């Protein structure tokens, strides 16, 4: 490689996104005091650019503007330029995204914001083309106009930025109104179901026309709604909506049929042409979701999708020390000699390529049939490519095919006179060959940053899959990742989580010079993961750590006046707002998950003040839950858990005994959303007995493994039959 012509301060950072910009001619600073001091000393505006390493339009803006010497000179002359990785610093991202959304009606990345020297925003947007076009002002023009305004109208800009900040403070406040109590579960659940039902796509599943996102929070809500309304037409519809959506996604191009795992979202209504990046948080949530679909339906199709996701994560997103990487990029070089990256290049195929890779005649099929014929028929491959030009604005996918299972295996088999079992084996052989061919292509960029929150979501995925599919290997992988978090993203001296660590040279794990402290989402998703891991492994050490982290979360983030948790700690002068997220998105909002975490924590510890806290969160969000619950489906689920009270399912028995294992398998194989599982193994010196003295009074009946289903520490009569236990677990 040639020696770079420019190198800026980002060369000293660990974030893959910041390092991508270390050789721009822009004099970038990381977010921090050095940049803030320079802006104040030189009385310069700040240009803040926020993105992430697998963001397609971030790459485009870098190529067009940040690599331009001329634009770089304008930026350096008039502004102090700061680059932020939104995945490292979601706190900074959220403050300024709140501003961009409020002032422009939209948001996204790259986010471009202009700030006064005291960090107050006054202008912003997302992607800007470098030069003026018919419908858009170019980045160069915007830079020069804003520089001119600062020179000519500084006082007006400062005044305006102060007004904007006050307005944002007012509109973003979430607090309890008067004597508000948690909203009633039935009404909130029913309204949320009706709102989702109205936006549901009957043909292809999902909840919009396009673009279409996986939205695990919606599907988890529908599963819970079904579990609580099994005998009603609404319950049946909720289940049908969720399972149909999951099947259509798995058949679609959003699912990588050759390399496994799921892409970020579909650009069309049919789940066909995706935005090709792959994010860890999607894999974790979808693994858990497909595991639940398998628990409910017993359909191996869903179990196979779980195995597919976890194979991808184990192979491509796993660090050898046990952590999980953040993401894989959408863009890559089509060939090793290409000069420009293209979106989806790693994943798409021409008909010609497929024929060359799959030329073999198929035994037992209609005469002249090749593997290529069968594969292309099944996966909707067309000679001229199967991508709608309207979904390919840059013509990057022209003549290419995104694989999508257009037919059932039975239909494809019948078309060629084959048995479905034979067809499945043929398709598997074809996918294997394509995988080998794809391995010779240049791989997309891998973001090897490891985040506590997203690792938490992935640990939950492995733990829940291990429990539901009875696969001990998945539980072991979850435990390995949890041990990684305890070693690399937890400070035992302070008892606090850290946000991120990084793959370093020689595959070591590195930390920033000044580590980033964990945010609310890190605590919430790690605590949830540790509860899931305890239920899958019954190792009490995970439970003990989860309860410690819950106490720490309360101390750092709880709002004693308005209730609920702030996303960030107090005391950072560079953060102008302390916010509470009020919308479940690609990930559930931390307050939504906190309600369930607090209820689980109370069940495992006997600390009933945690139940009270859960109620206070629901009270703080009560108005939103009653008016537009569709924005908080995870919190709606938690509302049901709060009002129904979690069942404590206690199995008394020898952990190694077959009768105990049968009972545990029964509990794990049934979808029962409002329960916690614990094992009373008779060791009264253990952590669980120290927390819950009532466990010592529970005995095995006739020397057999015995189950008790308790509510608020009051227990049912003991049962020793798996069938009786199964009936007791049904709501």
From TrEMBL:
Q: Name one Pfam family in it.
A: Thioredox_DsbH
Q: Which domain of life is it from?
A: Eukaryota
What gene is this protein translated from? Spata20
Name the UniProt record assigns to this protein: SPT20 protein
Start and end of every Spermatogenesis-associated protein 20-like TRX domain?
A: 7-168
Q: Which GO terms describe its biological process?
A: carbohydrate metabolic process
């Amino acid at each position: 490689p040639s020696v770079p012509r420019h190198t800026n301060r980002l060369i000293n950072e660990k974030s893959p996104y910041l390092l991508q910009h270390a050789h721009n001619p822009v004099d970038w600073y990381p977010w921090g005091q050095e940049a803030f001091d320079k802006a104040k000393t030189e009385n310069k505006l700040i240009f803040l650019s926020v993105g992430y390493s697998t963001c397609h339009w971030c790459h485009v803006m870098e190529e067009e503007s940040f690599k331009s010497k001329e634009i770089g000179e304008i930026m350096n002359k008039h502004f102090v330029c700061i680059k932020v990785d939104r995945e490292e610093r979601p706190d900074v991202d959220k403050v300024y995204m709140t501003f961009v959304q409020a002032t422009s009606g939209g948001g996204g990345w790259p986010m471009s914001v202009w700030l006064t020297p005291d960090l107050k925003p006054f202008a912003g947007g997302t992607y800007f083309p470098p030069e003026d076009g018919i419908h858009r002002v170019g980045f160069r023009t915007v830079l020069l106009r804003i520089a001119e305004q600062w020179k000519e109208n500084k006082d007006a800009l400062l005044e305006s930025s102060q007004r904007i900040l006050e307005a944002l403070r007012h509109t973003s406040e979430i607090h309890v109104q008067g004597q508000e109590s948690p909203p009633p579960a039935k009404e909130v659940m029913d309204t949320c179901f009706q709102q989702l039902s109205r936006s549901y796509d009957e043909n292809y599943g999902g909840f919009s026309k396009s673009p279409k996102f996986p939205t695990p929070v919606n599907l988890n809500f529908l599963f819970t709604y079904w579990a609580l309304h099994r005998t009603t037409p609404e319950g049946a519809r909720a289940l049908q909506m969720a399972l149909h959506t999951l099947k259509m996604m798995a058949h679609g191009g959003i699912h990588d049929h050759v390399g496994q795992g799921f892409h970020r979202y579909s650009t069309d209504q049919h789940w066909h042409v995706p935005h090709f990046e792959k994010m860890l948080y999607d894999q974790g949530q979808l693994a858990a979701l497909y595991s639940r679909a398998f628990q409910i339906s017993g359909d191996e199709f869903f179990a196979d999708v779980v195995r597919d996701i976890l194979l991808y994560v184990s192979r491509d997103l796993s660090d050898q020390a046990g952590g999980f990487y953040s993401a894989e990029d959408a863009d890559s070089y089509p060939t090793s000699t290409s000069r420009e990256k293209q979106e989806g290049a790693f994943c798409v195929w021409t008909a010609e390529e497929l024929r060359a890779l799959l030329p073999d005649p198929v035994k037992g099929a209609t005469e002249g049939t090749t593997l290529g014929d069968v594969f292309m028929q099944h996966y909707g491959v067309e000679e001229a490519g199967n991508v709608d030009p309207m979904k390919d604005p840059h013509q990057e996918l022209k003549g290419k095919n995104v694989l999508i299972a257009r037919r059932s295996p039975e239909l494809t088999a019948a078309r060629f006179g084959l048995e479905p079992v034979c067809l499945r084996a043929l398709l598997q052989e074809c996918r294997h060959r394509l995988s080998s061919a794809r391995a010779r292509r240049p791989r997309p960029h891998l973001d090897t940053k490891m985040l506590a929150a997203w690792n938490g979501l992935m640990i939950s995925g492995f733990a829940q899959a291990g429990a539901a599919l009875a696969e001990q290997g998945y539980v072991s992988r979850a435990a390995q990742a949890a041990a990684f978090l305890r070693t690399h993203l937890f400070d035992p001296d302070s008892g606090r989580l850290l946000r991120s660590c990084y793959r370093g040279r020689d595959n070591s794990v590195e930390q920033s010079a000044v580590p980033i402290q964990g945010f609310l989402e890190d605590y919430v998703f790690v605590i949830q993961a540790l509860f899931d891991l305890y239920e899958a492994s019954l190792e009490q050490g995970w439970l003990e750590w989860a309860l410690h982290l819950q106490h720490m979360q309360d101390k750092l983030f709880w709002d004693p006046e308005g209730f609920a948790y702030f996303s960030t700690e107090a005391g950072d002068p560079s953060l102008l707002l302390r916010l509470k997220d009020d919308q479940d998105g690609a990930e559930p909002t931390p307050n939504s998950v906190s309600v369930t975490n607090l209820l689980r924590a109370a069940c495992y510890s006997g600390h009933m003040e945690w139940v009270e806290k859960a109620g206070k969160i629901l009270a703080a969000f009560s108005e939103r839950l009653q008016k537009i619950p569709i924005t908080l489906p995870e919190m709606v689920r938690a509302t049901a858990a709060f009002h129904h009270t979690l069942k404590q399912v206690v199995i008394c028995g020898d952990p190694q005994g077959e009768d105990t294992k049968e009972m545990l398998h029964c509990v794990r194989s049934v979808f029962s959303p409002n329960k916690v599982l614990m094992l009373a193994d008779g060791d009264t010196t253990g952590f669980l007995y120290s927390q819950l003295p009532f466990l010592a009074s529970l005995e095995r009946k006739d020397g057999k493994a015995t189950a008790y289903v308790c509510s608020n520490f009051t227990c049912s009569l003991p049962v020793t039959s798996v069938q009786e236990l199964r009936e007791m677990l049904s709501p």
